[in-house]
């Protein structure tokens, strides 16, 4: 797998973000995508060493298209110059939460975990209920020294604790959230050696697992809305 080939293609796409260029360089895309799928396959096997639930999936089931939905965006460029994958026990669906990889040049790559989606009100309520009832367990995960060394919990949030929850709850700051996620940045320089990157990614994802497990226990029984 050649991570330099991946970044080189994405750099070219970001400079030439048009349908004409994309179709004229389809072979370059196919080569870069093949390298990315090879990287994802290797990552699935690494994650599978501590979370076997991800092993049934192939990279093609876990990756996202480059095309952007520009209907409601000021940015009308047709492609997102990033290769992305979400590796979880149910594939690339946002729930259950899993291990997210985005490769994007310009030092914008990152490893992610947790719930990024904030549009599912039922999911938000399920996690809030868990944090309200099992706040000590939540705090223990977040206070783990290795967790604190590597992560800060992100997510969209309300200004105030929502009604129905104690505004003086020890985890009140997290009850305001509508999503709860982790992002660990990966600079371009760390992507040159694919083997070293895979080893580091597996380590970071292993550290994320207790956070993911907590959210997935809270989200047990959640059903994605019908389209």
What does this structure look like?
The protein is α+β, with helices and mostly antiparallel strands and 227 residues long. Helix content is 45%, strand content 11%. It has a four-stranded antiparallel sheet with strand order 1-2-3-4. Strand 2 and strand 3 form a beta hairpin. The mean pLDDT is 95.
Give the SSE layout:
Blueprint: H1 3-15, H2 19-24, H3 26-48, H4 59-62, E1 83-87, E2 99-103, E3 109-115, H5 121-133, H6 135-143, H7 145-150, H8 172-175, E4 180-186, H9 194-218
Antiparallel strand pairs: 1-2, 2-3, 3-4
Helix pairs in contact: 1-3, 3-9, 5-6
How confident is the prediction overall: mean pLDDT? Answer: 95
The number of helical elements comes to 9
Sheet bearing the most strands, described?
A: 4 strands, antiparallel
Number of beta-strand segments: 4
Say what oligomer this is.
single chain
Order of helices and strands: HHHHEEEHHHHEH
Q: Output the strand order for the largest sheet.
A: 1-2-3-4
Q: Which strand-content bin applies to the residues?
A: 5-15%
Uncertain spans:
none
Distance between the termini: 36 Å
The best one-word shape is globular
Q: Mind telling me the C-alpha Rg?
A: 19 Å
Q: Report helical residue fraction.
A: 40-55%
Helix/strand/pairing category: alpha+beta
């Amino acid at each position: 797998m050649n991570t330099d080939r991946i970044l080189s293609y994405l750099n070219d796409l970001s400079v030439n973000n048009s349908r004409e260029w994309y179709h004229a360089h389809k072979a370059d895309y196919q080569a870069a995508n093949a390298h990315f799928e090879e990287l994802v396959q290797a990552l699935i096997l690494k994650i599978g060493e501590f979370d076997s639930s991800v092993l049934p999936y192939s990279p093609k089931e876990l990756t996202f298209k480059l095309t952007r939905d520009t209907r409601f965006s000021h940015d009308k460029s047709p492609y997102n110059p990033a290769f992305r994958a979400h590796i979880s026990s149910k594939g690339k669906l946002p729930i259950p939460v899993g291990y997210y990889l985005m490769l994007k040049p310009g030092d914008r790559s990152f490893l992610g975990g947790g719930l990024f989606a904030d549009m599912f009100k039922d999911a938000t309520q399920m996690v809030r209920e868990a944090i309200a009832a099992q706040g000590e367990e939540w705090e223990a995960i977040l206070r783990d020294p290795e967790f604190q060394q590597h992560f800060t919990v992100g997510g969209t949030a309300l200004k105030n604790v929502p009604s129905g929850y104690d505004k003086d709850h020890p985890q009140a700051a997290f009850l305001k959230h509508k999503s709860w996620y982790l992002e660990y940045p990966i600079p371009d320089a760390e992507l040159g050696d694919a083997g070293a990157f895979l080893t580091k990614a597996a380590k970071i994802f292993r550290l994320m697992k207790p956070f993911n497990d907590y959210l997935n226990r809270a989200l047990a029984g959640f059903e994605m809305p019908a389209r």
